[in-house]
Amino acid sequence: MYRTDKTTLIGDVLVRFSKSGDFELSLSKGPVTLLTLRQDASFAEVKGPFAKGGWSGPIEQAPKPLRAWLGLRDKLINSQDRSVRYTAGAETFLFRF
Questions:
Q1: Are 72 and 64 contacting, i.e. CB atoms less than 8 angstroms apart?
Q2: Using CA atoms, how far apart are residues 36 and 63, in angstroms rounded to an integer?
Q3: Residues facing 91 on adjacent strands
Q4: Is 69 within 8 Å of 55 (Cβ atoms)?
């Protein structure tokens, strides 16, 4: 689930990561992929309608609307739980695996 003051979305998420810290997340609703995120410790690439077209570059230069999404990598990789909740500003993410 993804929630802001104006938006709530419940969809399907595919999460993959490697031992070296490479991370990929795809968010879809039905047959439509809304966001694809690929990230390592210093660089990210984000595509899709939720990314307002897309962006790629060093994480520290990410546009403000994408920063919460880029915080997911550390939360998901380091979690041992089947449920992960992450809040960044007005955005809340809830994952159930």
A1: no
A2: 16
A3: 88
A4: no
Q: How many C-beta neighbours within 10 Å does residue 35 have?
A: 21
Tens-digit pLDDT profile for residues 1-43: 999 999 999 999 999 999 999 999 999 999 999 999 999 999 9
At 52, the amino acid letter reads K
The pLDDT tens digits for 60-92 are: 999 999 999 999 999 999 898 899 999 999 999
DSSP per-residue codes, 55-96: EEEEGGG--GGGHHHHTHHHHHHT--SSEEEEEETTEEEEEE
Measured distance CA(59)–CA(4) in Å, rounded: 22
Residue of 61, 28, 5 lying closest to 37 (CA atoms): 28
